[in-house]
Write a structure and sequence with these properties.
This protein is an alpha+beta fold. It is 20% helix and 22% strand. It has 2 helices and 5 strands; from the N terminus they run αβββαββ. It has helices at 5-10, 58-74; strands at 18-21, 25-29, 37-43, 81-84, 100-104. Bound molecules: guanosine-5'-monophosphate and zinc ion. Zinc ion is lined by residues 1, 4, 6-7, 46, 97.
Length: 113
């Protein structure tokens, strides 16, 4: 998708602070961190959100869940972390390319609404 910010980051057209990359996904630091560690993990394939996950592309989402624990270990996270993905306007999704927020480095409350 030519006008998608995260596709541009994946293509290297917009710089990002990369923390992990393989052939299927990219992880980079969120520009506006909400915790001491706040990374975004995105599939290289443009999928709009969880709402657009299908039997054909669900492997891209599953792959991200498979790599997150290793990324957290690499970053030295030992006492837990949170994985969040927003879907649509009520949840506050601002970038229409599937992304998993991974937050760590502090104890977290739970006030999603
Ligand atoms: P959403 O609100 O869609 O769940 O999350 C989008 C996230 O992308 C936000 O946390 C925002 O800070 C982050 N973000 C938006 N544009 C950029 C960018 O150009 N670079 C980086 N690293 N993060 C971005
Ligand atoms: Zn995209």
């Amino acid at each position: 998708m030519s006008d998608c910010i995260f596709c541009k980051i994946i293509a290297g057209e917009i710089p990002s602070a990369k923390v992990y990359e393989d052939d299927r996904c990219l992880a980079f630091k969120d520009l506006d961190p909400k915790a001491p560690i706040h990374i975004l993990v995105v599939p290289k394939a443009h999928i709009q959100s969880v709402d657009a996950v299908t039997p054909e592309n669900s492997g891209e989402a599953a792959h991200i869940l498979e790599v997150i624990p290793g990324i957290m270990k690499e970053l030295g996270v030992k006492t837990g972390y949170r994985v969040v993905t927003n879907i649509g306007p009520d949840a506050g999704q601002t970038v229409p390319h599937l992304h998993f927020h991974v937050l760590a480095g502090q104890e977290m409350g739970w006030t999603p609404a």
